[in-house]
Design a protein that fits this description.
The model has no long low-confidence stretch (mean pLDDT 79). By secondary structure, the protein is mainly alpha-helical. It is 51% helix and 6% strand. A hairpin with a 2-residue loop joins strand 1 and strand 2. The protein has a domain of 33 residues.
Length: 93
């Protein structure tokens, strides 16, 4: 199969990984991309501020019941660690 150039949302991808796949796998990738392109675009649902606030409150209540953050002794330090810069895969430090 020849080199594949995929155009999705006005962005062109020439992916060496796709080109190195066997022809049958390349066809599957193209079929999937075609499927995605033919799907109707998903519409963003506008929600009212009150509805959004209610959903956030419900989610936070569920997290509290699950004790999702129970093991975090110092929330400020935990957040600092999460935000700490780390090297990106494929980039030299």
């Amino acid at each position: 199969m020849s080199s594949i150039g995929i155009r999705i949302r006005k962005t062109k991808f020439d992916n060496d990984k796709i080109n190195k796949l066997p022809p049958e796998s390349q066809r599957k990738v193209l079929d999937f991309v075609t499927f995605l392109q033919l799907r109707p675009p998903q519409q963003l649902v506008k929600t009212s501020r009150a509805n959004r606030k209610g959903r956030i409150k419900k989610s936070l209540t569920q997290l509290a019941k699950l004790k999702a953050f129970f093991d975090i002794a110092d929330p400020v330090e935990w957040q600092r660690q999460l935000r700490k810069d780390r090297s990106l895969p494929g980039h030299s430090s």
